[in-house]
């Protein structure tokens, strides 16, 4: 039971950390609607997005049963975690719908495109448990939809939330890699302790690499702004 609850908490945290962009999409898609339609569009758009994400996660769980796919998913999750820490913003040219149907289509389609990271992370954390997926998504996605502004404010005010979320993704990636049928069996034969060491090591690697790239990116931005300012003068 303890393991179930820990995995459920892992799924919820991963969803919350990775869904900032989705919250922005919802806000952009509904911005041109009349006030009385905005709440309806957010509700039904979010409902449709949840359904699609559950289906995609089930497909991902099925795919992760294929040998070596978990390893690929693990490395992809590491890339996602580093990108999250680096602070790269995805370009999102999301137009606001002028009627509720257009807004709903925009929310669902954009969420579908932007949910690859969520789907992979949730599938890895669930470790094949469909009940975990359903409960985790049912709890976390409504929190994202209706608490999106608060969520983004907290993440901006307390960067440690993002740091811990990225570390959790690194840990989940490690669990996915050692959970692969072929690779996991090989690692078990080489060093049984790797099943514990690798997830922790990857969490630390994500923090180190992501933090380094973030600082490098910020330094490059500062140099660019300074150069532009010097050219103006």
TrEMBL record:
Coiled coil spans: none
Transmembrane domains' residue ranges: 6-29, 41-62, 158-178, 190-213
Main localisation: membrane
Keywords: Membrane, Transmembrane, Transmembrane helix
GO CC term, one of those recorded: membrane
Membrane topology listed for this record: Multi-pass membrane protein
PANTHER family: MEMBRANE BOUND PREDICTED REDOX MODULATOR (PTHR30238), SLL1022 PROTEIN (PTHR30238:SF4)
Name the UniProt record assigns to this protein: TerC family protein
Lineage: Bacteria, Bacillati, Bacillota, Bacilli, Bacillales
């Amino acid at each position: 039971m303890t393991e179930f609850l820990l995995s459920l908490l892992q799924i919820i945290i991963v969803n919350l950390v990775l869904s900032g962009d989705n919250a922005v999409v919802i806000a952009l898609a509904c911005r041109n609607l009349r006030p009385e339609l905005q709440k309806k569009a957010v509700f039904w758009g979010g409902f449709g997005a949840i359904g699609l994400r559950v289906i995609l996660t089930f497909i991902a769980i099925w795919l992760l049963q294929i040998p070596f796919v978990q390893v690929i998913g693990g490395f992809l999750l590491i890339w996602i975690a580093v990108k999250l820490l680096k602070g790269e913003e995805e370009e999102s040219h999301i137009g606001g719908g002028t009627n509720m149907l257009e807004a709903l289509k925009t929310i669902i389609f954009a969420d579908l495109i932007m949910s690859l990271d969520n789907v992979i992370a949730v599938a890895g954390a669930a470790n094949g448990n469909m009940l975990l997926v359903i409960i985790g998504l049912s709890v976390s996605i409504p929190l994202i939809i209706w608490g999106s502004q608060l969520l983004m404010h907290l993440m901006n005010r307390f960067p440690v939330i993002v740091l811990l979320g990225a570390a959790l993704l690194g840990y989940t990636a490690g669990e996915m890699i050692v959970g692969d049928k072929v690779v996991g069996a090989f690692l078990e034969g080489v060093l049984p302790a790797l099943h514990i060491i690798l997830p922790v090591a990857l969490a630390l690697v994500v923090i180190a690499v992501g933090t380094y790239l973030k600082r490098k990116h910020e330094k490059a931005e500062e140099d660019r702004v300074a150069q532009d300012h010097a050219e103006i003068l």
